[in-house]
Write a structure and sequence with these properties.
Largest sheet: 6 strands, mixed
Helix content: 40-55%
Order of helices and strands: EEHEHEEHEHEHHEEEEHHH
Radius of gyration: 43 Å
Shape: elongated
Strand content: 15-25%
Number of helices: 9
Length: about 450
């Protein structure tokens, strides 16, 4: 290779070439044990202590079983039904992310799931991928800015490492599928997945896979290429991963009792679709390749290729602008250059002032709107309280009226009962007098 560099001397650009000295590498055999062969164990212990992080994005139309598949992949209830109530579909695509911490065999994983509800559900899906593209670029930009800080030991990697793109079962890719993958294939690792694969017969599934891969190749779409390398005995089943694309999967969180074994699957009148049966779907291939064998490679490709491309484009754009400005300024006299810089500075100040005024105006409007909303809310509460008080007052008045009527009826009843008692007492006294007079007469006759 040839090293190129430039020297600027009195506005004269000189191009020189220099060939670096050749470096020879010689393998040396050691006479004893040194210890650097233990480096993999050191890296392993440090990595396990620090933990791992992975960001997975799921994209696809509603009803393809995205949340069910994620729960099946990680054998955990990451997406619950309560988190996704039945409501009207959003008119625009929204990017939502959630983070869960999983632990398996002493190894911790910070899993960030990025969902895109509303994708492909609208009547007009023009540029519905734009929020997704902006989210991925924003995470790259965030990581790039974090690398420029003084302390880079606390850089958090929130870049999207893999995108599971769900394809609806049918005869081939839709125009939206093709356009989405074209827009994002240089930004993220795309792994195509056929959702609801149990709606296809085995012959239809094979044909649909071939059509999808043919259309991907014809449209020059770059999907994630699973590396071909020496595999362990446990990984031999994943060596034909590229031939399995796109993965036709079935997701289920239901455990079925089949011949005394607990298996995840879906029960149908014609039979059972087992999730982890390679003869029924490609779920086991997807899980093995995505989690067990190539998760670190997905992160490496994101960091070494996709992110580096983004970084080079960003820095190249900034460098080219600065270089053009320096070359143009080198040909001007100092006074003219000072005037130009003064005008640029004044323009920047003017722009900043306008921006601050707009921000202040926006904040004032937001505050006034918020105060008006609070005023309306308080007025509604006040009116509601008055209605309740009026209702209570009417109820109290009705109770008072009812109580007065009851008291009047009670007094009349007491008065009537008093007259009856007096009449009965007088009749009783007259009867007693008659009896006593008869007794007296009978006594006189005896004597």
């Amino acid at each position: 290779t040839t090293l190129l560099y430039t020297i600027k001397f009195e506005s004269i650009m000189v191009l020189r070439t220099e060939t670096p000295p050749a470096v020879t590498c010689v393998d040396k055999e050691l006479n004893g044990y040194v210890g650097f062969a233990n480096l993999p164990n050191q890296v392993f212990r440090k990595s396990v202590k620090r933990g791992f992080e992975f960001t997975l994005m799921v994209v696809g139309s509603s009803g393809l079983g995205k949340s069910t598949l994620i729960n099946s992949l990680f054998l955990s209830t990451i997406y619950e039904d309560d988190n996704y109530p039945q409501e009207k579909l959003p008119k625009t695509v929204k990017v939502q992310h959630s983070t869960v911490y999983l632990v398996e065999g002493g190894v911790s994983l910070k899993l960030t799931l990025v969902d895109t509800p509303g994708f492909g559900d609208a009547i007009n899906n023009t540029k519905c991928w734009q929020p997704i593209l902006e989210y991925i670029d924003a995470k790259y930009e965030e990581y790039l800015n974090a690398e420029g800080h003084v302390n880079r030991s606390t850089v958090v990697d929130n870049r999207v490492h893999c995108c599971l793109y769900f394809i609806s079962p049918g005869h081939g890719l839709k125009p939206l599928d093709i356009e989405f993958m074209k827009q994002l294939h240089e930004k993220v690792n795309i792994v195509p997945v056929i959702g609801k694969a149990d709606t296809l017969t085995p012959e239809e599934c094979v044909e649909f896979k071939a059509n999808v891969m043919r259309e991907i190749e014809n449209n020059d779409i770059k999907i994630y290429q699973f590396p071909v390398e020496e595999l362990d005995d446990e990984e031999e089943e994943t060596q034909d991963s590229q031939a399995q694309l796109p993965f036709a999967v079935v997701g289920s969180n239901t455990l079925l009792d089949i011949n005394g074994k607990k298996l995840r699957g879906r029960m149908y009148p014609w039979g059972i679709a087992e999730v982890e049966n390679p003869d029924h779907c490609d779920f086991i291939f997807l899980r093995n390749n995505l989690i067990r064998t190539h998760m670190q490679d997905l992160k490496d490709v994101t960091n070494n290729e996709l992110y580096e491309n983004f970084r080079c484009q960003k820095l190249a754009a900034v460098t080219s602008v600065n270089l053009d400005n320096k070359l143009a300024s080198s040909n001007r006299n100092p006074l003219a250059q000072f005037e130009i810089e003064k005008k640029e500075h004044q323009e920047r100040l003017k722009t900043m002032k306008l921006g601050m005024e707009q921000v202040m105006e926006t904040k004032v409007k937001e505050k006034m709107t918020k105060m008006e909303e609070q005023k309306n809310e308080l007025k509604q509460k006040h009116d509601h309280a008055l209605k309740i008080l009026e209702k209570l007052r009417q109820e109290v008045e009705a109770k008072k009226k009812e109580l007065a009527e009851n008291q009047k009826a009670l007094e009349e009843l007491q008065l009537a009962s008093g007259v009856a008692v007096n009449n009965s007492t007088s009749s009783l006294n007259s009867t007693k007098d008659k009896i006593s007079s008869k007794k007296t007469k009978s006594t006189k006759k005896l004597f």
